[in-house]
Structure formats: C-alpha cells, structure tokens
Amino acid sequence: MGCSRLLFFSFFFPSFYVANVERLSTQFSSTKEFSYGFYNLIVGQSHGQVNAIGLCRGDIKQDVCKSCLSETIPNLLQICINRIEAVGWSDLCMFRYSNRDIFGVKQTTPDSTIKSNLNVSNVEKFNLALSSLLNNLSSHAAVGDTFGKYAESHAVAPDNFGSVYAYAQCTPDLSQKECGDCLETAIGKIGFCRGSIGCKVLQPSCIFRYETGPFLNVTDEINFSPPSSSPPPAEGKGKGNRTSPTIIVVVVASVIGVLLLLACIRICLRHGKSKEEDDATVQAATNNFCEENKLGQGGYGVVYKGQLPNKQFVAVKRLSCGSEQGEREFKNEVLLVAKLQHRNLVRLLGFCSERKERLLIYEFMPNASLDRFIFGKEKLERKNASEYRGSQFEGEGSTAEIMKCIQIGLLCVEERPASRTIMRSIVGMLSSSNPISLPTPSHPASFLRSTSQSDNIVSSQEAHRSTREHAPPSINEVSITELYPR
C-alpha cells in the first residue's frame, strides 16, 4: 500500500470529501459490471468529489477481479486513513483514489519495488536477456486499446537459466506514448533488483513483474537469444520418421506467416492512401475552409460547415496550426470524446492528423428551437397543445429514470460554476444501468426560506435599525470637505 506523504485531511478540508472516501467500498460493491478488469469510479461532485481507479491483472477472470478489489479497497482505506489520496497494490489488482482528476493522467509516484532474496549465478547475461524481454513486453502493452494494455510472456534464458515469466500492464486510459513512458520509467528502476530471480515494480499507472517460476497463463514465448544453427540430422529410421511431420508443420507455418505479413503491409498501404483521400474530401466538403462556411471560432481553432459526398452535413473543427495548446486539445478531445459516445451528445464522426493539419469531424446540428427537434416542424406550425407530445413520450416510462434525468439536469445548472457536474460525470450517470447515488442539488438563487426564518431575519434587521437610530451621531472633525462627482 502507498499513501501520499503530506496530503492529510485538515480542519479546513471539506467534511463531505471524507464521507465520500468512506463510501468508496460501499459504492464499489454495488457495481455489477467488470467487463475488462478496469473500473473508474466517481463519488460526489465539485470540491468533495473523489476519483477512483481499479485495475486487475490482465490474465484473471471477472469474479476473481471483483473479489480482489473488494478486499483491497477496505484495506487501503484502513491503512491510509485520513489521507486525501492513496494507492494500494496486491498480486492481482490495484486501487487508487484522489481528490483530483486521475483518469487519463500518467503517474509514476508513489512507487514500490519488491524483489526476491535469491540471486542468479551469471548476473550480466541474465540482466541483458531480461532487459530484452521487458522491452518487448513494454512495446506490446503500449499498443493495446482502451479495453486493455497488457502483455505477458515467458522466455528461455541462455546458459541453463531456465525460463523467465513476466508481464507488463498499464491502465487502459493512457495513450500509447504515455503507457510506453510509464513502463520505461518502471523498467529503469530494475537496478534495485539486479541479479534477483524475481522482482516487481509497482506504479499508479503501470506495473511490471518477472519471476523464474510460472505464475501466469502464458500466451506467447519470446527467445532471449537469436536461434542457433540447426543441428545435423540424426541417423536412424525412427528419428527420421518423427522429423518429417515437424518439417511440414514448420514450412506451412512459415508460408502462413509470410502471407499474413504481406496482407498487413497491403492493408497499411491502403489505409495510408485512404487517409490522404479523406483529407482531400474534408477540404472539398468545406470548400477549402472558406469564410462562407465558417460557423464560429474558439480558443483552439475555427469550426466550418461542410457536406460530405454522401450529402451528410458535418461540422469540421480545424485546430490552430503550430499551437501547443491545440495539439494537446486535439489529443484530449479524440481520446475522451471517442469514448463518451451517447445519444444525447454530438457524435465524433472522424478525425484527421497529417503534418500540422488537425481536423475533428462532428455531426452537424443546425441552429433552431429546441422544440423543433423535440416535437417536429408540423406540430409547431399547428400550435395545438393536445398534439404537442411526441411519439417518443407515448406509453409509460420508468419513474426512477425520469427522476434521475431531472436531478442530473439540476446539477448542470447550479448557481456556482464550480459546483456544476462535469461532462464526464454526466455521461457516466446517463449511460450507467446501475443505481447511482446522485449528489443532491443545492438551492437555486431564487429559493425562498421558510416563514420562521424570514421572520427572524426581518426581526434582526429591525432590531439593528432601531439600535442604529438611537445611537448618537458621529462628529465630523474634518476641517475641509471637498466633493467630487462620480
């Protein structure tokens, strides 16, 4: 377990944050979905919001994953009591929480390195071979998608070292570069385990581990050293009969591998060509980004209206060229918006990144009255109240779902901007099928207090006014008074 060293709860820290931290275990136990061993939990809102991430090892099943996290969370809360943020690891899972946004953010501290007390005989050769294996696993894990960035393997070491089993894993919310950098930092700490037969480096955003004994469901094998020359064929009929089928299998596998490689190269070349055509298509759709198609301009670029060859209207966001903020915004928007697909959100149809040109293509929503989208043009022209209801409102609906939508809407229009729910939380609330304890909206600005409270306020004001009226007037001791108009 690892806790932040200086971030303790203080007297001035919101008490509801402490309550939200204590709710993590209960909130997690009510979750039923563990589709790919990664769990993102948000409890509370605004300054009291707790952000949590749970990650299971990539080779374990869902029930084992949930059992591991259910045991790790209460232990972490007990060990790191009164901490604003903490992280805990076990052999099969990891859990962390913080008051800041940790989703999609690479973090390498606090860390923990654990090694075996037994050492190998030839340290130099073993470490050289081990470095090759870990670098290979790091590359494979980094190219994983949002469903998992995990790679495992075992390798046959030289000089009769036996086999070494290892795995590398990142939280799937990281990009390929962030995952690679995180694992590179972790592998750089392997000097502490120099010569040890087993070691694991634990970081909040990534983990790697190796052992000389099997502890994983190995799916692939990587050789430390290049293949040696083929041994001379053995004499004897029995031996020759066993060798022939082996040769046939190897030849067939080699042919299949070459064909797959050629197919991949062809797909990549075709993909690169279509990417250039897509870029030209976008320019043609927006009339080469002319001013007539300009819809607006923001801090990171200009938005244009366009029409694709299939007659579909789109909104093309062209990010500012050479802007560091524009590049960061493009990266965040593609990663987050692509994940946050919802029927109530404008869909991201595609993107283009070529040289310094960065384009985001959204579905186009023309300016109009909200009633026109809800009820349609014909019913608006009739202006008949009895026919205002759309077909989507016919029949009975879930009262709980209606109340949830109303409550989310109230959270979006809080008086203080800092208290309003962020878009990522809204999408999670809308798309979740599990019961979520939503925060209670605060009173609106026009909220009227009760009669007793109003009477107390009025009485207090009258008493203050009475005291002020009976107080003796102050004496003006200034000799000269100059008046200046406002």
Structural key phrases:
disordered C terminus; Killer Toxin P4, Chain A; 12 helices; globular; 486 residues; Phosphorylase Kinase, domain 1; alpha+beta; 38% helix; five-stranded antiparallel beta sheet; single chain
Number of strands: 15
For the biggest β-sheet, the strand order reads: 1-4-5-3-2
Structural class: alpha+beta
- Largest sheet geometry: 5 strands, antiparallel
Radius of gyration: 32 Å
Domain Protein kinase: 289-486
Organism: Rubroshorea leprosula
Biased composition (Polar residues): 448-461
Region (Disordered): 221-241, 437-486
Structural features, described:
- Keywords: ATP-binding, Glycoprotein, Kinase, Membrane, Nucleotide-binding, Phosphoprotein, Receptor, Repeat, Serine/threonine-protein kinase, Signal, Transferase, Transmembrane, Transmembrane helix.
- Residues 1-19 form the signal peptide.
- It comes from Rubroshorea leprosula.
- GO terms for molecular function: ATP binding; protein serine/threonine kinase activity.
- By secondary structure, the protein is an alpha+beta fold.
- Helix content is 38%, strand content 19%.
- The protein is built from twelve helices and 15 strands.
- The strands form three sheets. The chain has a five-stranded antiparallel beta sheet with strand order 1-4-5-3-2. The protein has a five-stranded antiparallel beta sheet with strand order 6-9-10-8-7, covered by helices on one side. A five-stranded antiparallel beta sheet has the order 11-12-13-15-14, sandwiched between helices.
- α4 packs antiparallel against α5.
- The protein is globular and about 75 Å long.
- The model is unreliable at 5-12, 218-244, 269-277, 450-455 and 478-484 (pLDDT under 50).
